[in-house]
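Lecture notes, part 5. Sequence design as translation. It can be helpful to think of inverse folding as translation between two languages: the language of shapes and the language of residues. The source text, in structure tokens, appears below.
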């Protein structure tokens, strides 16, 4: 493995959220040392080792993504070709998390990132200018400010574009030449940047954003699309939530979740039932609220609950600690969602054995 990037915070315990390649540097180094399989040009690891890094090996390599192995294999195989990768899914299905770890394992650098918003300019995908140098010296390579995509091309690394469909259509289409010709023209200088081996691009998109800024057919053809599903079972989702809450808790110096597994299961159960519109046993139909109630939101609710238990309680996660967060996650529309939530409380939660403390805490908050 290469040494940390200049300015990186590897080993700095004061960093709230280290980059994946810094946080898991030891695992990446271990895999690189033992990896004797063929590596695509420019890759730090073989596709097999990248997949092992993502899914874990049950021993020394911790899982970063909990889900179907085939989904990860298809994503990695795509990046080993000249096709870009589009990770598509509902909010909270770990699209950003997976893209970061893929870039870290393949390139050793997950920071070449473009965040898509309605205000993302074309310069974020192509290049901009240092206007002080431009005015003083005129157009030149030195006056040019490369985008993360341009840097990834020049260095043979993986670039990431988050929330692709949130970006204006003309900005999206700036990627077409990059992905098809592997070239970024600079007409002002009569110059171009050609992608080096190892370059590729991972984009993420929320499939609830259909109709916001849909991809053109020309751009969509440049991607292989991998759909990330919601966790298939409650146990799988509990496992994901418990792992992430524990990781976040360590970075925030909060206690572990060992004593709070019951509350984790409860939050996951509530979210899954409201998403599905039915209780786990299928006997009772319930209305679904307007929000997504994603796995990521469950992680947020529980992390906030642990903070409450730590700083204002006895350190043990209890129903009252998660009640406020769960009500806030469910009730996004003040009128309609509140009706849905109260009906769920009265028809499901109140009658469920062992849930009386949770019922009372949610009633008090509501």
């Amino acid at each position: 493995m290469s040494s940390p990037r200049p300015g990186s915070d590897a080993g700095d315990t004061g960093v709230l959220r280290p980059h994946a390649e810094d946080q898991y540097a030891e695992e990446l180094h271990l895999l690189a040392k033992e990896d004797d399989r063929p590596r695509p040009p420019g890759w730090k690891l073989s596709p097999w080792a990248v997949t092992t890094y993502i899914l874990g090996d049950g021993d020394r390599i911790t899982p970063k993504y909990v889900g179907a192995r085939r989904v990860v294999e298809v994503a990695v195989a795509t990046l080993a070709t000249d096709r870009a990768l589009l990770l598509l899914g509902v909010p909270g299905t770990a699209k950003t998390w997976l893209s970061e770890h893929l870039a870290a394992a393949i390139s050793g650098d997950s920071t070449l990132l473009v965040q898509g918003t309605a205000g993302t300019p074309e310069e974020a995908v192509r290049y901009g200018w240092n206007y002080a140098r431009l005015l003083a010296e005129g157009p030149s390579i030195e006056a040019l400010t490369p985008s993360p995509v341009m840097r990834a091309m020049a260095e043979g690394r993986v670039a990431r574009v988050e929330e692709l469909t949130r970006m204006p259509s003309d900005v999206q289409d700036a990627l077409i030449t990059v992905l098809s010709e592997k070239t970024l023209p600079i007409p002002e200088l009569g110059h171009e940047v050609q992608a080096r081996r190892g370059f590729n691009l991972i984009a993420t998109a929320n499939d609830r954003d259909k109709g916001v800024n849909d991809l053109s057919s020309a751009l969509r053809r440049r991607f292989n699309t991998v759909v990330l599903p919601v966790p298939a079972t409650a146990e799988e989702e509990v496992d994901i939530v418990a792992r992430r809450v524990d990781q976040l808790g360590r970075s925030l110096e909060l206690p572990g979740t060992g004593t709070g597994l019951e509350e984790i299961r409860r939050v996951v159960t509530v979210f899954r039932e409201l998403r599905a519109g039915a209780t786990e046993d299928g006997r009772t139909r319930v209305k679904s609220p307007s929000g997504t109630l994603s796995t990521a939101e469950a992680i947020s609710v529980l992390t906030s609950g642990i903070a409450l238990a730590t700083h204002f309680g006895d350190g043990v996660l209890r129903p009252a600690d998660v009640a406020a967060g769960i009500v806030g996650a469910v009730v996004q529309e003040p009128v309609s969602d509140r009706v849905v939530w109260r009906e769920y409380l009265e028809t499901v939660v109140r009658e469920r054995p062992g849930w009386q403390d949770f019922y009372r805490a949610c009633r008090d908050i509501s």
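The translated text above is only one of many valid answers, since several sequences can fold into similar shapes. Strands lie at 84-89, 113-115, 127-129, 144-146, 158-162, 183-186, 191-194, 200-206, 223-227.
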